[in-house]
Amino acid sequence: MTKSDYYPEKPELIEYKAKANLSLTIFSLVAFVMTFLLIFEEQFYATVGYLVIVLIIHEMGHFLAMKLFGYKNVRMLFIPLMGAFVQGKKSNYSEKQSLWVLIAGPFPGILIGFLLYWYSISVDPGHNSWLSEPALYFLLLNIINLLPLDPLDGGQMFKLFVRKKNEFYLMVFALAASLLLIFAGVYFNLTIRTSLLFNLMVIFGFLMAFRVRALQKRYQMHQELTHEKVNYATTYKLLSNRDFAKIKSVVMEYTPALKKFKDQVPEEEFDPVIASQVNNVLVTPMKRDASIFFKVLILIFWVLAFCSPFILAAILGIKWWMNVI
After folding, report:
1. Is omega for the bond preceding 272 within 30 degrees of 0, making it cis?
2. Within a domain: residue 70?
């Protein structure tokens, strides 16, 4: 081995192993609810309850699917003004299992919303009309979650369907969707009535706009690493010292704050930080075991999910959007 072939040993990656904690889930849920109650007016209090129910059922779908497929340390957390997520890890990821985990959240919620709205309009509407409000939350929030935007479920599904060069399209979709959500939320607030749901659309649209910059940065780094013939589709454990050095160089180039931090702290303090940053650039390897038939089936249900409000309107012979809260 020549001197030019030698690369220093990569630092150890210190991973935070989050454990399932029911008390933390409950605390995050309370903080989520209190934030809404403090910010929004009393007229929205009932809809906050509907929002929480929709999120809990949605995330429980992910939670149970992860448990079924043997994910470790599965936990659910709520984030004020943003939503909720379920987190878990596996040593080996499967494309088929990942798709099941992703659809276990939005698809049941859309089905529940569809059935609730149909029941509220068709079966004794005088006594069940109140069900139309939570039904719309089930429908709209889960449909929005299926948009092909990272980190939404639809964005994760899109990555699994399009194996190569998906980052550019995710970035474009994120920008377009953020502008669409902001416009739609403002438009409906002005033309129909002020609604918590429409306010959330505006907030989420602005949050997605900030997300676009992160997607752009990751895309540019991957483009540069591809040009340098660096294998970033691997785990940190299997990452070679050569590839670590290359990725570290790119990360430092795109993150000026890291350069300042490196100059201000000892090497032993900087190593865990740069190891974590390099690990964030890596793309998790996955076993490609989903058949074409299974993917086509998921794609059909995906399209039907987006069309569900219009299918419902056709069945009931109504303009469903006129009843939006």
Report:
1. no
2. yes
DSSP-assigned states of every residue in 214-262:
HHHHHHHHHHHHHHTT---SS-TTT--HHHHHHHHHHHHHH-HHHHHHH
Q: What tens digit of pLDDT does each residue of 157-192 get? A: 888 887 656 677 777 777 777 787 788 778 777 776
Other CB atoms closer than 10 Å to residue 30's CB: what's the count?
11
Of residues 137, 151, 144, 131, the one with CA closest to residue 54: 137
CA dist 241 → 217, 236, 255, 274 (Å) = 23, 10, 21, 13
**CA 178 from centroid of its chain's CA atoms:** 14
List the domain range (segments joined by +) for residue 198: 17-233+283-323
Contact yes or no for 103/298 (Cβ under 8 A)? yes
Give ∠ CA 177-183-184 in degrees, rounded to 5.
85
| In-domain check, residue 257 | no
What total number of domains does the chain contain? Answer: 1
**pLDDT tens digit string along 211-229?**
788 888 888 898 899 888 8
Burial (CB count within 10 angstroms: exposed 0-12, middle 13-18, buried 19+), residue 47: buried
